[in-house]
Design goal:
Order of helices and strands: HHHHHH
Mean pLDDT: 75
Helix content: 40-55%
Largest sheet: none
Shape: elongated
Number of helices: 6
Number of strands: 0
Number of domains: 1
Distance between the termini: 50 Å
Oligomer: single chain
């Protein structure tokens, strides 16, 4: 972070040049919590944080539980399809309600949907 806003461009350039200079000694790994926005970093950096096998598993989970990409304001893993197999958008929220009754100590999903949360 630059102390002077007027120096922001110079600071950014220095940081990028330093990062590029350190690449020969890098393991290639990425810590996902330190990634910037996808538009700045690129989608490939998000995949690099998990590695190809884990990333493929995460895409499969995203396809199953959040194919409409409702939860996307993070280090997004994009689904490979736009909608679920039934053709209707499906969100993680609807899936959460579907399995709510399987969580100990939580009211059944039908009670949550009907509004009677006793």
């Amino acid at each position: 972070m630059c102390a002077d806003v007027a120096e922001a461009e110079n600071c950014t350039r220095w940081a990028r040049e330093f990062w590029n200079a350190m690449q020969p000694w890098s393991t290639g790994g990425v810590y996902v919590n330190y990634l910037g926005r996808e538009v700045d970093e690129g989608a490939g950096r998000i995949e690099a944080a998990y590695g190809p096998e884990k990333y493929a598993r995460l895409v499969a989970l995203k396809n199953k539980y959040d194919s409409a990409n409702f939860f996307r304001l993070n280090q997004n893993i994009k689904p490979s399809q736009a909608t679920s197999q039934q053709g209707a958008p499906r969100t993680s929220l609807s899936v959460s309600f579907q399995y709510m009754d399987q969580v100990p100590g939580v009211a059944s999903s039908s009670k949550w949907r009907s509004g009677s949360r006793k």
